[in-house]
Design a protein that fits this description.
206 residues; alpha/beta; 9 helices
């Protein structure tokens, strides 16, 4: 199937719900990834509303906050998500016993840490679920890299990457949560990023 990305992005790139409907209407195997960070309930609700059994993939690093784990359980239950959790091959306790606490961003070991707790689990998830469409909640305001992305793109491996919320503001997201009575979570930390506007590498690799 040949997709006219220019036309799709021009016509649907600023209409998140129609973009979700279009992507699911391709009748290709789809997944949505989440990290249960602030406003994640928006993308999860938007996809589940159209196709409730869409697989939801969470790469749980083991370093999430208590609030994030509780939020994950709450949203999963409320939306009846088809959630699969991918964990690093070593537990947090094992990692810290051998390697110590999370290495600082300028520590040469940080890249290996990121690979172990996020990138390898995601590569494993892609291999096991073999999706053709990938929904992600990334936004243009997150990082400079994401500001250059399009709502719909095709990865080198042919995976169709769909970011319906790319052009949404925090106000847009908040209004959606309120309108649909969805919970939120602001006590979130990603140990692979360290800084709010830093890429962890997942969207650079995929």
């Amino acid at each position: 199937m040949q997709l006219d990305l220019g036309k799709i992005n021009a016509e649907l790139g600023h209409d998140a719900e129609k973009l979700v409907e279009w992507a699911l209407g391709l009748n290709k195997k789809a997944i949505v990834t989440t990290n249960f960070r602030p406003f994640e309930a928006v993308i999860l609700h938007m996809v589940a509303k159209v196709q409730p059994d869409t697989p939801v993939i969470w790469m749980d690093s083991g370093y999430n906050t208590v609030a994030t784990y509780r939020f994950a359980d709450e949203v999963t239950k409320q939306l009846q998500l088809n959630l699969t959790v991918y964990l690093p091959k070593r537990s947090r306790a094992h990692q810290e016993a051998v390697d110590g606490p999370v290495p600082a961003l300028d520590d040469p070991r940080h890249a290996a840490f990121t690979e172990e707790v996020k990138l390898e689990p995601f590569t494993r998830a892609l291999r096991e679920t073999a999706p053709e469409v990938w929904f992600t909640a990334l936004r243009a305001t997150d990082t400079a890299v994401r500001a250059q992305m399009d709502p719909v793109s095709i990865n080198p491996d042919g995976l169709i990457k769909v970011a319906p919320l790319l052009h949404w503001s925090s106000k847009d997201l908040y209004q959606y949560l309120t309108a649909h009575n969805l919970p939120n979570n602001f006590d979130y930390v990603d140990p692979t990023k360290g800084e709010e506007n830093r890429e962890c590498g997942l969207h650079l690799a995929h």
